[in-house]
Automatic annotation (TrEMBL):
Gene3D superfamilies: Rhodopsin 7-helix transmembrane proteins (1.20.1070.10). This is Probable G-protein coupled receptor 141. Its main location: membrane. Keywords: Cell membrane, G-protein coupled receptor, Glycoprotein, Membrane, Receptor, Transducer, Transmembrane, Transmembrane helix. It is found in: Cell membrane. It holds the Pfam family 7tm_1. GO terms for biological process: inflammatory response. Orphan receptor. It is a multi-pass membrane protein. Residues 49-265 form the G-protein coupled receptors family 1 profile domain. InterPro entries: GP183-like, GPCR_Rhodpsn, GPCR_Rhodpsn_7TM. The keyword Transmembrane applies. It comes from Chelonoidis abingdonii.
Length: 318
């Protein structure tokens, strides 16, 4: 009798368990150290990105509005701002460890991170190509004929990203597995599809190849400038222009490449909780690219250049 009564009580306890705890079959939360790392990275990206976007907005007022480079920078400011708007939702989730904004919005926030990464890469490539065309004297300057052309070109990119890519991501992504109502950013079940795996491998190969080509060409240009310029290269504007181009590539290497390289391992070990957490950390590092505008503002200032020259002279004396 005691055994049967205990069995009944046990069954009743399971049937009266809150529904929320039974809707998370694939949920996994990072431990405290990893969670604090994610929170720290997103806070740094949010604060630094916001300051950089505001500072660059003031500088854009003085720039040539017909320049293709200026148009790319304007789009970067808008792109970073859109991502930064989603960061508070990620911070709330990692702090409270509970998602309360709905599954569709979770997919939209997740999609914005990837859209930001690849559009940032696109605008970097455009800016670098324009700089190289001018450097090799194939073009004196690259400008739109009218402001309307700049607006139309920017609008075309955003229409593809927001009107086509984002709805497709929200509609199609997250349909292969059962995801909890109070968890977010855990779409590892999608990687079990062979088509999704193949797409990821293609993207990884393309991004890695582009990064290597950009870096190789930029190093070649810098070496060519160093050989051509007389005396100390630190006092020449042309050298600093190439250093600024190298900063674009540095952001790609530091922020975007680790995510893609680790993705190769992650695809093959999607069932491991630790690999999922590391993938989230690598993805969060892509948000650090929002600091690029702040670095461009600081790097372009005369005060910064003077300090670099002073530091070089002190090291030379030592």
């Amino acid at each position: 009798l005691l055994i049967s009564r205990n069995t009944v009580d046990h069954d009743v306890a399971w049937t009266t368990m809150p529904e929320e705890t039974t809707t998370l079959p694939n949920a996994s939360q990072p431990n405290d150290i990893e969670r604090y790392a994610l929170i720290t990275i997103y806070i740094v990206a949010f604060i630094g990105g916001t300051i950089g976007a505001i500072a660059m907005s003031f500088l854009l007022v003085k720039m040539n509005t017909l320049s293709v480079t200026t148009a790319a920078i304007v789009n970067l400011v808008v792109l970073h701002s859109l991502l930064l708007l989603t960061v508070p939702f990620r911070l709330y989730y990692y702090i409270s460890q509970k998602w309360i904004f709905g599954f569709a919005f979770c997919k939209a926030v997740s999609a914005m991170m990837h859209i930001h990464m690849y559009l940032t890469l696109l605008f970097y490539i455009i800016t670098l190509i324009i700089r190289w065309l001018i450097f090799f004297q194939w073009k004196d300057k690259v400008e739109f004929y009218r402001k309307l052309h700049a607006v139309a070109a920017s609008a075309a990119v955003w229409i593809v990203a927001i009107v086509i890519v984002l709805p497709l991501f929200v509609a199609r992504y997250g349909n292969s597995g059962e995801y909890g109502n109070t968890t977010c950013f855990t779409f590892q079940q999608e990687l079990k599809k062979e088509s999704v795996k193949a797409l990821n491998y293609v993207i990884i190969a393309v991004v890695t190849t582009i990064t290597c080509v950009l870096l190789g060409l930029q190093v070649f240009i810098i070496l060519k400038v160093v050989k051509k310029l007389p005396g100390s290269v630190w006092s020449h504007q042309e050298f600093w222009a190439q250093i600024k181009s190298l900063m674009f590539i540095s952001v790609i290497i530091i922020c975007f490449l680790p995510y893609h390289l680790f993705r190769v391992y992650y695809i093959q070990h999607i069932e491991e909780k630790q690999s999922e957490t590391y993938n989230d950390i690598c993805l969060s590092i892509t948000a650090i690219s929002c600091l690029d505008l702040l670095s461009f503002v600081i790097g372009g200032s005369r005060f910064f250049k003077q300090k670099i020259i002073m530091l070089r002279d002190k090291l030379a004396c030592c």
